[in-house]
């Protein structure tokens, strides 16, 4: 599938240590993965800096062809990637299929953005001092990019770091989550093979695994141009502090809300919570976590939601019908259970829940108060919290009361309510009559407040990873 060791420099480097990657559902060994060190991280940065000029000078046609060829290579190995993702993440097969399909779109879209990297002329003669001058600006690569991805969508998240960096003309050093390095290692191998076929340097894309010390070695190096990170708010904030003044793009967590207005299609809203609250076993930053239902329809909505809760199939993620399976590790499972117990102690009412072997069953908490982690923080598990509100405006206020602001959705048949949501909700994306977890990989994606800074999506990431260079000429 790919060589042993880590892809550093022009070849693959052996590591002293390895770490077992285990199948979260039953703990069986998937593979032993190489473990990097701070020394290897610094070496990867040395290599990236060494090829930065060569990568920046690659013709647009080469970068576009490279990106398209990687897309084709992923497509040719689509089923194998899906199966690998199931075993290393424990995510249901249906969600892994979505991940690979979205990954292919991401690489194709990044290829299209290469031809859109251009600047504009500037009218310098708006002041007399500019008479006779010609002005225009272009976009130049920001330099070496460090991309750090989370465990829940390792292939897709790494692609959102690597593909835009290549499109922008930047070398990239990727660090996957320690629990899920395998699909990303294979991806980087395919990228480097595609680069070699076009005469581009292999060191334009490298990968280092390891712990927080390895990550710190990468983000604190003053030679890099940008850090692109996807993960928890706490880690993202630390990276921003450590990396300063280097540019940081942070795609962080959330506790996504879904508002059910008095005129909503209640069946559609209940269906959206079932689809949007439990996909990827709840391990998605824009999965439905908080549901705010206007009082006049809360009884109808809750009845319909709870009547269908058993439709969410629990079990082995390799099965076609499974929708919820084991979380990434036991520590995550214990944390989610602890948060649910604390919410119940604080007055919330539990519906569903419990364990099915290693799997937390789909869980609904009713009347969850403020001040508990299940409502205030990102639970990252198959748990949905439902709260009754007096009206839509109160719902919007409670959505905005969170320290997070990634995506939110509102269900309503009223255009007035839809546009009020677009105007009032303090989030990066407002979704009307669909799950807040909807994401097209070509749209600008990112949050406000503690949900991050900057935007992903190839077009927007390429803009983030380039800088303007102004030209002023007196002919």
Describe the structure.
It is built from 15 helices and 24 strands. With 475 residues, the protein is α/β, with parallel strands linked by helices. Helix 1 runs parallel beside helix 7, helix 2 packs across helix 6 and helix 4 packs parallel to helix 5. The longest helix has 22 residues. The relative contact order is 0.14.
* Mean pLDDT, all residues: 98
Output the structural class: alpha/beta
Give the total of domains: 2
- CATH domain class of the largest domain: Alpha Beta
The strand line-up of the biggest sheet is 14-17-18-13-12-20-21
- The end-to-end span amounts to 56 Å
Biggest pleated-sheet summary: 7 strands, mixed
pLDDT under 50 segments (min length 5)? Answer: none
Query: What Rg do the Cα atoms give?
Result: 23 Å
Quickly count the helices: 15
Number of strands: 24
Q: Predict the CATH topology of the largest domain.
A: Aldehyde Dehydrogenase, Chain A, domain 1
Overall geometry comes to: globular
* CATH hierarchy: architecture of the largest domain: 3-Layer(aba) Sandwich
In what range is the share of β-strand residues? 15-25%
Percent of residues in helices: 40-55%
CATH superfamily of the largest domain: Aldehyde Dehydrogenase, Chain A, domain 1
